[in-house]
Design brief:
The chain is α/β, with parallel strands linked by helices. The protein folds into two domains: 157 residues, Lyase, Ornithine Decarboxylase, Chain A, domain 1, CATH 2.40.37.10; 255 residues, Alanine racemase (TIM Barrel, Alpha-Beta Barrel). The protein contains twelve helices and 21 strands. Strands 4, 14, 15, 16, 17, 18, 19, 20 and 21 form a nine-stranded mixed β-sheet that branches. It has an eight-stranded parallel beta barrel with strand order 5-6-7-8-9-11-12-13, surrounded by six helices. A hairpin with an 8-residue loop joins strand 17 and strand 18. Helix 2 packs parallel to helix 9, helix 5 crosses helix 6 and helix 8 packs parallel to helix 9. The longest helix has 20 residues. The N and C termini lie far apart (63 Å). The structure holds pyridoxal-5'-phosphate (PLP) and lysine.
C-alpha cells in the first residue's frame, strides 16, 4: 500500500493522517468524510513555486479551484502565495468570501454569463481568460458601461491530443474551449481584442487536458504558441507579457500511474520557453500555470463506514459503504481507479477480494473493483486514497444524500472546514406547490 504525505500506520494499527487517527476522525465527524492533509497541499504548492524561483523565472502558479473549492482551501492557497483560478460566479464568490487577494484571481469559463463578467469587473479581479467571440462582445459592452479596463488572456486551442481520458481532453481541435490556433479564429480574436479599449491583453493561454503523465504535450503546446507569438510579433507587433500553459499534471491514484515530480514538468516548460524564445527572437514571457489535481489530489482521503455485503457465488463479493457516486463521481464518469484500505485494521492480512459498492440506486455506483482487503465487517472504516481533487467539488445530492463534511488535518489537529449537510439543507430551497395559486 502506498501512503501519501503525512499518512502512516500508528501504534494501534490505524491509519493516521496529519498526526490524527483516521478512526477517531470517523467517530468524531461521522462518515462519509473528506479528510485533507494540509501539509501535503503546502508541500505541493511550494514545489511548484520554488522550481520557478530556482530558475529565476517570473511566474504565477494559480490553483485551479474547480478541483476543490471551499473557503478554507482558498485560505491555504493564499497563505502559500499562489494565485487562484475560478470558473464560475460561485467559485469567485468563494474566493471573495475567503478574502483572497482579488488581483491574483483569474476567471475562466467557456460560457461566462453577463452577470459573472459583471461580478469580475466590479471586483477588479486580476484577469479574465477570454474563451470566445460572444465573451469579447460582452466585455466590450461591460467595460464601457463600468468605465474599466480589464486585464485579459486569450484562451487558445493548440490542436494537441494529450494522452488521457477523452472527457478530460481539452487542447484538441474538436473542443468546446478557446480560439483555434489553426483555422484563423485566434488571429480574428486577437484583432478584436486589440481593438477593444476596455481590454488590456496581458497574454495567451492554453490548457491541453488533465491527468497527463508526459511532458511532450506541454513542449508541443509551448512550441505552437511560440510560433504564433513570432507571427503576431511580425504581423501585428503584439508581444504577450504572459504565457499561461494551464494545468493537467498527473498524479498517482494506483500503482498503474507513474507521475513525474511536479518540478520536472515545470523545468521542462521553462527550458522549452527559453529555447523557443532564443530561437524565434520573442522575449521570455512571464510563465503562468494552473495546477488543480496535482495540488490537492493525493492530499485527500475519503473515509466511509462499511455496511452491507452481497455474495454472488463464483462471481463477486460486493461490500457496500455509506457513500458512493454522490461523493465521488469519477469511477462512474471516467472509470477512474483508486486504492483503499481499512483504516481501523491497517496491519491485518488481506484475505479477500471485494468490490466496493456505493449506496445510490444505480448499478453503475461502484467505487472500486477487485480490491484486496482484510475481511470487511460492518462498522469498519474504509479509507479511499487520493480523492482530494474533483471529489467534493463534483459531489451531488443524488438520492437526496447529504454532502459529506470536510476536515483539514495538520500537525496533529483536526478542524471541520465544511459541515455535513443535513436533511434540512437538502430541502431548504424546496417550496410547497400551492395549487390555489395556479392560473
Ligand atoms: C483551464 C484549466 N486550467 C486548469 C485546470 C486544472 O487541471 P488539473 O486539475 O488537471 O491540474 C483545468 C482542468 O482540466 C482547466 O480546464
Ligand atoms: N473533473 C475531471 C477533470 C476535468 C478537469 C477540468 N477541466 C477529473 O475528475 O478528472
Amino acid at each position: 500500500m502506498f501512503l501519501h504525505g503525512t499518512s502512516r500506520i500508528n501504534e494501534q494499527g490505524h491509519l493516521e493522517i496529519g498526526g490524527v487517527d483516521a478512526v477517531k476522525l470517523g467517530k468524531e465527524f461521522g462518515t462519509p468524510l473528506y479528510v485533507y492533509d494540509v501539509a501535503l497541499i503546502r508541500q505541493r504548492a511550494r514545489g511548484f513555486k520554488e522550481t520557478f524561483e530556482k530558475h529565476n523565472i517570473k511566474a504565477q502558479v494559480a490553483y485551479a479551484s474547480k478541483a476543490f473549492s471551499t473557503v478554507a482551501m482558498v485560505q491555504v492557497v493564499d497563505q502559500e502565495g499562489l494565485s487562484l483560478d475560478v470558473v464560475s460566479g460561485g467559485e469567485l464568490y468563494t474566493a471573495l468570501a475567503a478574502n483572497f487577494p482579488k488581483e491574483r484571481i483569474h476567471f475562466h469559463g467557456n460560457n461566462k454569463s453577463r452577470a459573472e463578467l459583471e461580478m469580475a469587473i466590479k471586483e477588479d479581479i486580476g484577469c479574465i481568460v477570454v474563451d470566445n467571440f460572444y465573451e469579447i462582445a460582452l466585455l466590450q459592452e461591460l467595460t464601457e458601461q463600468y468605465r474599466k479596463t480589464m486585464p485579459v488572456l486569450l484562451r487558445l486551442t493548440p490542436g494537441i491530443e494529450a494522452h488521457t481520458h477523452d472527457y478530460i481532453l481539452t487542447g484538441q481541435e474538436d473542443s468546446k474551449f478557446g480560439f483555434d490556433l489553426q483555422n484563423g479564429q485566434a488571429d480574428e480574436a486577437i484583432k478584436a481584442v486589440m481593438e477593444t479599449s476596455g481590454i488590456n491583453l496581458l497574454g495567451i493561454h492554453c490548457h491541453i487536458g488533465s491527468q497527463i503523465f508526459e511532458t511532450t504535450g506541454f513542449v508541443m503546446a509551448t512550441q505552437k504558441l511560440f510560433s504564433k507569438m513570432k507571427e503576431w510579433k511580425e504581423t501585428i507587433g503584439y508581444v504577450p507579457e504572459v504565457l499561461n500553459l494551464g494545468g493537467g499534471f498527473g498524479i498517482r491514484y494506483t500503482e498503474e500511474d507513474q507521475p513525474i515530480p511536479v518540478s520536472e514538468y515545470v523545468e521542462v516548460i521553462i527550458e522549452e520557453v527559453k529555447k523557443q524564445s532564443a530561437q524565434l527572437d520573442v522575449p521570455i514571457p512571464e510563465i503562468w500555470i494552473e495546477p488543480g489535481r496535482s495540488l490537492v489530489g493525493d492530499a485527500g482521503t475519503t473515509l466511509y463506514s462499511v455496511g452491507s455485503r452481497k455474495h454472488v457465488p463464483n462471481i463477486r463479493e460486493y461490500v457496500a459503504i455509506d457513500g458512493g457516486m454522490n461523493d465521488n463521481i469519477r469511477p462512474a464518469l471516467y472509470q477512474a481507479k483508486y486504492e483503499a484500505a481499512l483504516a481501523n485494521r491497517m496491519n491485518d492480512v488481506k484475505d479477500e477480494l471485494v468490490s466496493i459498492a456505493g449506496k445510490c440506486c444505480e448499478s453503475g455506483d461502484m467505487l472500486m473493483w477487485d480490491l484486496s482487503l482484510p475481511t470487511a465487517r460492518p462498522g469498519d472504516i474504509l479509507a479511499m486514497f487520493c480523492t482530494g481533487a474533483y471529489g467534493y467539488s463534483m459531489a451531488s445530492q443524488y438520492n437526496r444524500l447529504p454532502k459529506p463534511a470536510v476536515v483539514f488535518v495538520e500537525d496533529g489537529d483536526a478542524q471541520l472546514v465544511v459541515q455535513r449537510e443535513t436533511y434540512e439543507d437538502i430541502i431548504k430551497n424546496d417550496l410547497k406547490y400551492n395549487v390555489a395559486l395556479k392560473k
